[in-house]
Design brief:
- This protein is α/β, with parallel strands linked by helices.
- Helices cover about 40% and strands about 15% of the residues.
- α6 links the parallel β2 and β3.
- α1 runs antiparallel to α3 and α8 crosses α9.
- It is globular.
- The two termini are about 20 Å apart.
- The relative contact order is 0.13.
Length: about 350
């Protein structure tokens, strides 16, 4: 299939997904409603609001201009070659989190063989069905299987640090991309505007904080006033209405209080001073700094464990703007590994 044809199909897919997320009717409205309902039934984190948010984020990627600009950096995907079967083991932490790998495999001219996570086994097959309705030629390039991946020539696998060690050993003889746990952080100066702190709330609470692009750790200057932070994120208070989130909040709060840990709490978010990057659900860790150079050193030391950094400070290079961590662009690759380049060369 010619690249122009693929870009056209994904552009149309983006428009239809946006219609569904905005509750505008199209041919898939009823099926989408059923998939969203069943997804929430099987995974209480996948609220309709979060699924719609994920669909809008995917739709935003799939503009014709963005797809053309992205693909233009990989002239090799235009060449004729024998397609390879690429096995993709997907995570299930946020809705349709495997879509970018799905897109990369198909744009590279290869065959997608996907194994969905048990917590998210409905959304991507639904999206694939929509794509095949738009462009039937994709049908022979898309396979989903609940079984062990076999007869594939390359692998992309996303999982925990423990599962990554297994993947690394099991797929050692094949071209592969293995992803591990990562977290995102925010570096604050204390001079952030109320709007920036409100947007930070989205970085922390979108998808209940379950994504690798969600902020889980704050670096703040010594003497930082957390009152402004609590005011900024207060519009996220509805997260406590989710039973699973509320259970995690109560559990972590109880553990910290029983352990006599010093915490700050606003009845839906716990702040705890801790050097770790990865915090539990409903908790943000924070760490004080005296000089921004100390933070820069820390970022370099921990770069393999950090997905993205949120900050408005000019000293923090390549920082993401407040509120944009869950709005990745096409070239924002997980674990900073260029997936499309890998797939174009197998």
């Amino acid at each position: 299939m010619h690249l122009v044809k693929k870009i056209s199909a994904f552009t149309q897919l983006g428009k239809r997904l946006n219609q569904l997320a905005q509750q505008e009717k199209n041919d898939f409205t009823d099926k989408y409603a059923a998939v969203v309902q069943q997804s929430y039934y099987e995974n209480g984190w996948f609220t309709a609001s979060n699924v719609n948010k994920a669909m809008r984020a995917i739709a935003d990627m799939l503009s014709e201009t963005k797809l053309q600009n992205w693909a233009s950096a990989y002239p090799e995907i235009n060449s004729e070659k024998e397609p390879k079967r690429v096995g993709v083991i997907m995570a299930g932490n946020i809705p349709a989190v495997g879509f970018h790998d799905f897109l990369c495999v198909l744009m590279s001219g290869n065959i997608f063989v996907g194994k969905c996570a048990s917590d998210d086994k409905l959304l991507l097959p639904f999206i694939a069905e929509m794509l095949c309705t738009i462009e039937p030629s994709f049908k022979q390039r898309i396979n989903f299987t609940p079984a062990k991946l076999e007869n594939v020539q390359a692998y992309i696998a996303t999982g925990s640090n423990n599962s990554a060690r297994y993947f690394q050993n099991y797929f050692a003889k094949h071209p592969h991309v293995i992803r591990r746990n990562r977290n995102s952080i925010a570096v604050l100066s204390g001079n952030e505007t109320p709007e920036q702190l409100q947007n930070l709330g989205a970085d922390a609470f979108d998808y209940f904080g379950l994504g690798c692009r969600n902020v889980s750790k704050l670096f703040v200057p010594t003497g930082y006033n957390f009152d402004n932070l609590f005011k900024g994120v207060y519009n996220q208070k509805q997260v406590i209405e989710n039973k699973k989130y509320a259970n995690n909040y109560e559990y972590n709060r109880t553990i910290y209080l029983m352990g006599s840990h010093k915490i700050l709490d606003n009845n839906f978010l716990i702040l705890k001073e801790d050097i770790a990057l990865s915090s539990p659900i409903a908790v943000l860790f924070y760490e004080y700094y005296n000089a921004i150079e100390d933070v820069q050193i820390r970022l370099r030391m921990d770069h393999e464990h950090i997905q993205c950094v949120v900050s408005a400070m000019p000293q923090i290079k390549n920082a993401v703007d407040f509120g944009n961590t869950q709005c990745p662009q096409l070239n924002d690759y997980a674990d900073n590994v260029d997936t499309l380049k890998f797939l174009s060369k197998i």
